[in-house]
Specification:
Elements: H1 3-20, H2 23-30, H3 34-48, E1 53-55, E2 59-61
Antiparallel strand pairs: 1-2
Helix pairs in contact: 1-2, 2-3
Length: 66
C-alpha cells in the first residue's frame, strides 16, 4: 500500500470511528476486524503523542482528537 493510500485509510478509519461512536460499529462499517481498527487508532495516537478517543460507553473525541 502506498503512503497516500495508507494515510487516507487511516484518516477514514478515524472519521468513521468518530462518527459511529464506537469501534465495533465503525469496524463493521469499514468491513475490518474491530481489533485491527482499535490497534490502528491507538498506533496513530502514539505516533502523535496523544490519545485521540476517550473510551466510555461510546468513544468520545479528546480535545486532541477534535
Amino acid at each position: 500500500m502506498n503512503s497516500e493510500r495508507a494515510t487516507f485509510t487511516i484518516f477514514r478509519a478515524f472519521v468513521v470511528t468518530a462518527g459511529r461512536g464506537g469501534y465495533i460499529a465503525a469496524a463493521r462499517s469499514l468491513n475490518i476486524a474491530q481489533s485491527a481498527l482499535s490497534r490502528t487508532i491507538v498506533e496513530v495516537g502514539e505516533e502523535l503523542g496523544t490519545r485521540l478517543f476517550e473510551r466510555t460507553r461510546r468513544v468520545v473525541l479528546t480535545s486532541s482528537g477534535e
